[in-house]
Amino acid sequence: MYSISSESPAHPDIVALIAALDSYQSALYPAESNHLLDLTQLPGHTLIMMVIRDRQLNAVGCGAVVLNSDGSGEMKRVYIDPTHRGQQLGEKLLAALEDEALSRGCHTLRLETGIEQHAAVRLYERSGYQLRAAFAPYEEDPLSLFMEKLLVADLRLAGL
Q1: Which structural domain, as residue segments, surrounds residue 66?
Q2: What is the reported pLDDT for 35?
Q3: Residue 103: predicted pLDDT
Q4: Does the keyword Acyltransferase apply (predicted)?
């Protein structure tokens, strides 16, 4: 049994998960292709941070959405501990993040991921994200993939 809840990006459990993610990505890509945003430096109202905990309350996954003023958001820092993969925790985490983003007026989510993160790419594809061109502040990078998902099929319904 796992639970998903909102938590501060400064919580030691989340800091540890993000450190593991950074270590993993740093082994795959050169520094210029790693976009390691420090979520603790963002204003709280622009950030959705969630953690997955197991029965013993150990943090086994995390993910965030950085909300933009234009109604879009960027998925960041999605990570599931390797010993807990294969249980659809990634799908559940993305759904929770998307639901919270939508409740805060976000109509579109974007993300950047690396070409060597095959499981992550499959997760995003299964969850409805589609390839797109680089978006600000990123530039095209042969080691990056950029993806997007509309949370509201008709933006007129969102009052936009």
Answers
A1: 3-158
A2: 84
A3: 95
A4: yes
